[in-house]
Amino acid sequence: MRPVPGSQQGLRIRKMDVFTATLVHISVYSEHLSEGFSQKTPLATSVVERWHVAPGVKRINIREEEVQGTLFLPPGPGPYPGVLDLWGAGGGLIEYRSALLASHGFASMALDYFGPKERRWQDVDFSYFEKAYQILNNHPVVQKDHLAVLGLSFGSIITLGIVAYSKVIKPQCCVCVNGSHLIPFDKSLFEVFEDMKKNIDKLHVNKENQVIHRDIFSTPSNPPVKVDVGRIKCPLLLVTAGDDQAVPAVESAEDIEMMMEKAGNRHLLEVLTYPGAGHLIEPPYSPHFCATNFNLQLINQRVVMLWGGQTKPHAYAQEDAWNKTLAFLSKHLYNSILH
Fold it and tell me: What positions does the domain BAAT/Acyl-CoA thioester hydrolase C-terminal occupy (predicted)?
């Protein structure tokens, strides 16, 4: 799926109410059309309901110890392995991935760590994520000490930092989608963004006035400091896109692999690389958006961010990566329960 030619630029479809279906209208026409659908009469039309929750999935608001999030629980008494679900720097509480994970048997907590406005970036440090991890780990329906951390984009930067350095967060596995170790998270959000601002001059725009963000990261061979991934003690799945214009995910994964080889923990690493895919590798069947409106925290401006990717390979990446992510989580969370 992709936006209709001529539609408003910069929009991104995201499911905000996971307990209602998304209606997808599928129509067949007598010839190939790229525009003007509303003026044509289809030969046949069908409506498909797309759901993000299975029957019986429960949604619980989490407001504990300053932590804000949403916990989705699979049907039944449990206990279930848990997933701490971290989205990127766009902020807000994004629930549809956790709802899907709960529909596949994982107790998943979507964590809000950029908002609300009254929470200062200085206050969002290791302890915030450690509290969230403990809330999930201590929930009565969650299988204690059978947790994973899943991050996308900036959420992957957080994931690599907390898994490498935290004395509290000890997951059975973790998944990073288009992230990087080149900007270490080991203090607070405020300090991470202050470090990133040192490279603000590397932000540039293309001829369509779309912001290309990937060059703000230092090169793997010459960063001032990077996450010591040699400290990671659990299986790690890296999902990377060959046309990512926001993060140098492929180059970062190659360097992570070399660092882990040198540290002796390369056997814990699995890397999936998708040529032609863009930065926003979401759950399958999410439309591909090459560029969208985005509140860029670094400069405190609303811009059009270039994410990259071509529609067909990106769609394939979303479906394949999701299935392999579920298999990875099942292997390391459910199998460990059975053992």
Answer: 124-334
pLDDT on residue 172: 98
194 contacts: CB under 8 Å, gap ≥ 6: none
Instruction: Give the residue from 158, 176, 167 showing the smallest Cα distance to 111.
Output: 158
The residues assigned a catalytic role are 153, 244, 279
Which bin fits 336, alpha (ψ -120 to 50), beta or left (φ > 0)?
alpha
Q: Sheet containing 80-86: which strands, arranged edge to edge? A: 58-64, 67-73, 107-112, 80-86, 142-152, 173-177, 236-241, 269-274
Report the distance separating Cα 57 and Cα 51, nearest Å: 12
Q: What's the pLDDT score for residue 228?
A: 96
- Token pair, residue 183, equals 């900007």
Please give the Cα distance from 84 to 68 (Å, whole number): 12
- The reported pLDDT for the residue numbered 26 is 92
- The pLDDT value given to residue 339: 45
Nearest to 160 by CA among 146, 145, 172, 149: 149
| Cβ count near 190 (within 10 Å) | 14
Residue by residue, DSSP assigns 190-212 as: HHHHHHHHTTGGG-EE-TT-PEE
Orientation angle between helical segments 126-137 and 154-165, nearest 10 degrees: 80
Q: Where are the beta strands (DSSP E) in the chain?
A: 22-28, 44-50, 58-64, 67-73, 80-86, 107-112, 142-152, 173-177, 204-205, 211-212, 236-241, 269-274, 291-296, 301-306
The residue with tokens 């046309």 is: 243
DSSP assigned state of 188 = B
Q: What integer pLDDT is reported at residue 39 of this predicted model? A: 85
Query: What is the signed CA dihedral for 249, 310, 245, 235, rounded to 10 degrees?
Result: -20
Q: Which two tokens stand for residue 205?
A: 């725009």
The helix/strand/coil state of 321 is helix
Tell me the pairing of strands 107-112 and 67-73: antiparallel
Q: Residues in the chain with pLDDT < 50? A: 339
